[in-house]
Design goal:
Blueprint: E1 5-17, E2 20-26, E3 38-45, E4 48-58, E5 67-73, H1 79-87, E6 93-100, E7 113-118, H2 123-134, E8 141-147, H3 156-165, E9 169-175, E10 185-186, H4 189-196, E11 204-209, H5 211-224, E12 232-236
Parallel strand pairs: 7-8, 7-11, 8-9, 9-10, 11-12
Antiparallel strand pairs: 1-2, 1-6, 2-5, 3-4, 3-6
Length: 238
């Protein structure tokens, strides 16, 4: 069965943190997805638009939101990074395939959610939180976000508003290179998980972020904490 392809236009593209871009696309007619899934963009080489490769990006918007939201961390010389920073602007046509992926929540499991991510690995969790909270899921949902410093934080105000609106949701932030005045968790997410979510072993766990973090979290969960593999869902971001 052929994977659906869609062509749409960019609605906005802006820098929201150090080396982080947020871009919105008009949702194409007929496109639907599950919270946590991703798409493959056709990414042309800046110097040669006919040279196209695909790149995967998780959808950060919830299924019922009007537009499609994405977030990207810039990598020097990266094909997708240059395309996002130099080409995409309001009105730019964008083509993608999808949706793909099985990194979705399992509401049939009665356990509370623990979501652990680094940087742009937060994208699928934003989608899932907005959908789950907005549709009345009242189980505990804890999101632990790790970045290096305050300059690397984004979407914090929106997430804090969600935590104020929904008692069941809590946001935890860990900085590995925090300034002296930082009041939150210090260190990598692997090191502060228990402090942020004390009952982590009783949760169904979702992890998304850089491959080294996801690998270490997987080992911690399975080998050290004795968590059943069926309760662990991992997606690495390159």
């Amino acid at each position: 069965m052929a994977i659906p392809r869609f062509t749409t236009v960019c609605l906005s593209n802006r820098v929201i943190a150090r080396d982080i871009y947020e871009f919105r696309l008009q949702k194409p007619e007929g496109f639907s997805f599950k919270a946590g899934q991703f798409v493959l963009f056709d990414v042309p080489l800046v110097e040669n638009p006919l040279d196209i490769q695909t790149r995967a990006f998780s959808i950060a918007s919830a299924p019922l939101e009007q537009d499609l939201l994405f977030v990207a961390k810039m990598k020097e010389g990266g094909r997708a990074s240059r395309w996002i920073a130099e080409v995409i602007q309001e009105g730019t046509p964008v083509t993608f395939q999808g949706p793909f992926g099985a990194f979705v929540l399992h509401p049939e499991n009665a356990k509370d959610y623990a979501m652990i991510c680094t940087s742009t690995g937060i994208a699928p969790f934003r989608s899932q939180l907005v959908e789950s909270l907005g549709t009345g899921d009242c189980r505990r949902m804890d999101l632990l976000l790790g970045v290096r410093s305050q300059e690397d934080l984004f979407w914090v105000e929106e997430l804090q508003k969600l935590s104020q609106q929904y008692e069941s949701f809590s946001l935890h932030i860990a900085l590995s290179g925090a300034d002296a005045d930082w009041k939150g968790h210090r260190g990598r997410v692997q090191a502060v998980t228990h402090a942020a979510i004390p009952d982590i072993v009783a949760r169904q766990i979702y992890v998304c972020g850089n491959p080294s973090m996801t690998l270490e979290m997987k080992k911690l969960c399975v080998e050290q904490w004795g968590i059943d593999r069926k309760e662990l869902h991992v997606e690495g971001y390159i």
